[in-house]
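Structure, all two chains, one model.
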Amino acid sequence: GEDVEQSLFLSVREGDSSVINCTYTDSSSTYLYWYKQEPGAGLQLLTYIFSNMDMKQDQRLTVLLNKKDKHLSLRIADTQTGDSAIYFCAERPDNAGNMLTFGGGTRLMVKP
Amino acid sequence: DVKVTQSSRYLVKRTGEKVFLECVQDMDHENMFWYRQDPGLGLRLIYFSYDVKMKEKGDIPEGYSVSREKKERFSLILESASTNQTSMYLCASSETGGALPDYGYTFGSGTRLTVV
């Protein structure tokens, strides 16, 4: 199967941490990605992780990868109102050529 | 700064019109993609192209066609627009796999099309 699954919605208070979860299906995926889509805009690459890594940290962002469970998460520390957006995870399976498979997106709402 | 440019942010067309959505990338990417995005349905792939003059159907090609006469330009064509094609359309491009690191897709800002 090619379903990448995410919960639809997450609401947090400003200053709290947000954790957005994603489960993917293809254990051959070499790269996994997080994209951010602000209202009315396209998707922007937020971060990515190579499959031989368990964790990647980039300023307020921490990506955790559990290959055994095919689980990817994005943690945003000290969440700000500007982080309100839709977050998409995506995988690139080895046998899919150049194709990415996207999750349905998680809408993050940050309350002041 | 690398860019994927979609010619229109907002477009309103009448039912039955032929509609062209244009996408241009300046990164010399081989691969280009057209998606539509609807609430609750995520991103759905319409068509993609691996090379000039080459096209492949995605998951929902019905009612659409594409054109890739030059490497940098990938056009989406709605032959006869219908109200169910009202949506946000996103263009993306990517390098052919093998380059490290792999940055995945670069997206345009999107075109919100309304068919009345």
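Chain A has a mean pLDDT of 91.
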